[in-house]
Amino acid sequence: MDINMTRIYLASRSPRRAELLHQIGVAFVIIPSDIDESVYNAELAEDYVLRLARGKAQSCCARLPALDMPVLAADTTVCVDGKILGKPESDTEACAMLASMSGRWHEVHTAIAVASRDGTEVALSTTRVKMAALSRDVIAAYVSTGEPRDKAGAYGIQGLGGTLIERIEGSYSGVMGLPLFETAKLLRNCGVAIPGTQD
């Protein structure tokens, strides 16, 4: 594959993932994926995000007969007490999610997959996050902003949700939805040049 390739397909509509790719100088074309994101019975959070990231990438590949550029896909989930927290379906559910993490550590798992003519590579980023102790009023005020509605775990660390986080151990960009270290590594493996970096 041509080492001078600088464009990829991004299998995501996430503005946060787009922002992070712009940050590292990778141009992309969005081709949204459409797969079933249901959790399997007794499926671990790590296995869940790896399966979805791989499935999203391969689903997009199937719609690209030429596959002239690599496809990057990702999936993020939050896990507390072994329970997977996806995107809240209502403000009530968002409040419950935030209450379950209040004053406690939880994990954010983000898997990425890069598919090319040579196959599909995957990587996993896991970050521990400590949320501050939150009162009902603080939770209600945050949820009323609307920010939690499209976020796994009902918060966005890059926005107002960042004021609720005391500490993280791991990848900040991974919590945002695209771990840049792992992403750059897999893209370089596919011949995508990342400005200012090398193997």
Describe what is shown at a glance.
Helices cover 31% and strands 26% of the residues. The protein is of the alpha/beta class and 199 residues long. The chain has a single domain (7-189), classed as Maf protein, CATH 3.90.950.10.
Account of the 3D structure:
The chain has 199 residues and is of the alpha/beta class. The chain has one domain: Alpha-Beta Complex (Maf protein). 31% of the residues lie in helices and 26% in strands. It is built from six helices and seven strands. Strands 1, 2, 3, 4, 5, 6 and 7 form a seven-stranded mixed beta sheet that branches. α3 crosses α4. The longest helix has 18 residues, at 45-62. The chain is globular and about 50 Å long. The two termini are 16 Å apart. The model is unreliable at 1-5 (pLDDT under 50).
Question: Could you say which structural class the secondary elements and strand pairing correspond to?
Answer: alpha/beta
CA-atom Rg in angstroms: 17 Å
Q: In sequence order, what are the helices and strands, one letter per element?
A: EHEHEEHEEHEHH
What would CATH call the class? Answer: Alpha Beta
Helix content: 25-40%
State the helix count.
Answer: 6
- Integer count of domains: 1
List keywords for this structure.
199 residues; alpha/beta; Maf protein; 31% helix; 26% strand; disordered N terminus
